[in-house]
Amino acid sequence: MNSPVLSISRRTRQTPFTNRVTENGVKAYSVYNHMLLPTVFDSVEADYRHLKDHVQLWDVACERQVEVRGPDAARLLQMLTPRDLGTLQVGQCYYTPMVDETGGMLNDPLTLKLAADRYWISVADSDLLYWIKGLAYGLRLEVDVDEPDVSPLAIQGPKADDLAARVFGEAVRDIRFFRFARLPFEGHELIVARSGYSKQGGFEIYVDDSDLGEPLWDALFAAGADLGVRAGGPNLIERIEAGLLSYGNDMTRENTPHECGLGKFCQTQSAIGCVGRDALLRVAVEGPIRQIRSLSIAGEAVPPCTGPWTVFAGREKVGRVTSAAWSPDFETNVAIGMIRMTHWNPGTEVEVDTPDGMRPATIRDSSFI
Amino acid sequence: MNSPVLSISRRTRQTPFTNRVTENGVKAYSVYNHMLLPTVFDSVEADYRHLKDHVQLWDVACERQVEVRGPDAARLLQMLTPRDLGTLQVGQCYYTPMVDETGGMLNDPLTLKLAADRYWISVADSDLLYWIKGLAYGLRLEVDVDEPDVSPLAIQGPKADDLAARVFGEAVRDIRFFRFARLPFEGHELIVARSGYSKQGGFEIYVDDSDLGEPLWDALFAAGADLGVRAGGPNLIERIEAGLLSYGNDMTRENTPHECGLGKFCQTQSAIGCVGRDALLRVAVEGPIRQIRSLSIAGEAVPPCTGPWTVFAGREKVGRVTSAAWSPDFETNVAIGMIRMTHWNPGTEVEVDTPDGMRPATIRDSSFI
């Protein structure tokens, strides 16, 4: 059976890099924030190997920005997240779980502080813009909230520093993790952050003018020819090995940050003003009764995980696997799932109900890489 | 060049009908409200021919419902739309443009009034849930707002009444346009509305329990064998012929309802409480300076419209085409676009800048069907 193709229309928005992505032979897309997200160029495994050994350009324009600016911007930002933003400095990025009034996850963006009264929220796959606009209107806050013309392009892989330095200069090497600098490119200043959705290292460049997309792509490709630069995208295998969660896959509005293992990003006591604070204060005291864990699933390569797979201990349902893939490096199936506290200790043996049948699996103490 | 396939994960949610859709050989999907939307089974043209001659089942589970219930439900609903909901009766559906405080379109759902204090909003492709939750929280309204387990299944085509009557009984024939009834199926009562995203007639069944999805699909297929029932989906050609707008394609937050030709659904004077009322009162008086029009584009079949195509009159930019397809029945390319008032009169000759080059086109007075 052939895999269904994606029907592309204006609604599945093109990005400033789509022409280049097409020229580089994109084989699969996902749709993310109503925008094309290239996911496969050669094969998932070949892309994975290349990402871990070389350097790739990723069209992650679908990481749309919500810009919040105005006198009430800082107050509104703190309403969105249980993370204490009092310590966030200009030039810094925070990973910020964002929750509704029940403490349910609405998104897990990176928040960039551009100025005391101006932020970009680099969102995962949900229209967080609508929640923020609704709150701002309902509470009559003095802010502007919008989606600017900003399209991130990621440079990821062990050779990312070398490639970025050739285009943005040596200063790029001094950018610390989750910090950003404004660096020149063809007469513009672009925000370059040391961040990205892999553990292979690299940068995200916030291209704030669509017309710069192709010139920047071309400059990076030209500069990186001898580094073996290729087009890539967030890689299913690598991100599961790295334990990087995916909103909509591993967590939804059903889950609290604590269930997602994001308690370390919640300073619920001091995050005064967070709309989910009351709900999360209770969770913070009692702790969650289920939590995200990495697992290894035995046997041959599992099929794609298109819906939760129930996790069993004997006949008891003790969790659900939400992401899984065969890892060539670890020679096992790597997986992420939500596991009940009765069975979440490292080394616990469970079974996973995959479409190919029941498989033995083991709970791990941490991610694979 | 091959068309990219869709990477399917839990995030691109499966529906209660996905197994059946797969068994029926789905060839293309779109992603809509973070959910799979089957778009092609045979070919776009073959599906179109069949839809116009027979009857199809459409998995439109991606038309997710936002349920609003509670003492402030009616008040909140009127905040969302410039359509006067004072006349909406229980058992009735209204097409409701929904706007932000600037009058920009956030969604164009169908609103179903289930009871005086309970509504379903059957949403197009944006997380309207987030906007409504934000407003409700910010304004401290007494409502619950959530996405229930409701997955619409559409029966569309000229034989839809016959097919529906075989499963739901003759009472289905008495349902008037944009009205709904509760009809029995296997011991449940399902909401059946005379509605759907085609002009071929038919129903949408609001399946409010995922476990009923396959039994209902199977019952309709079994009952419709001699009617030639097939799996289908919203058809690009037919919906353009019908002038049915698509949120994200033909209109975005940039547009007011009046620009979208939806002024007839705006009773802005009497829609007191609508958050976009102030902005739209001005628009209602002055009128829009550009508006949605149907067009016919000359020449061979156009390629897929994946982004706006600029419309020219001489060297002047006078609009943008946002949807287009070759129509076998009208033997022309049918299209929808936003045209400036200087050139929107029926019969105006313009040119459209397609990826295949400039094409002559004509503004129409109405949709094709």
Automatic annotation (TrEMBL), chains A, B:
Alphabetical list of SUPFAM superfamilies matching this protein: Aminomethyltransferase beta-barrel domain, Folate-binding domain
UniProt domain GCVT N-terminal: residue ranges: 18-269
Positions of transmembrane segments: none
Entry protein name: Dimethylsulfoniopropionate demethylase
Region (Disordered): 349-369
Organism expressing this protein natively: Sneathiella sedimenti
InterPro entries xref list: GcvT/YgfZ/DmdA, GcvT/YgfZ_C, GcvT_C, GCVT_N, TrmE/GcvT-like
Superkingdom of the organism of origin: Bacteria
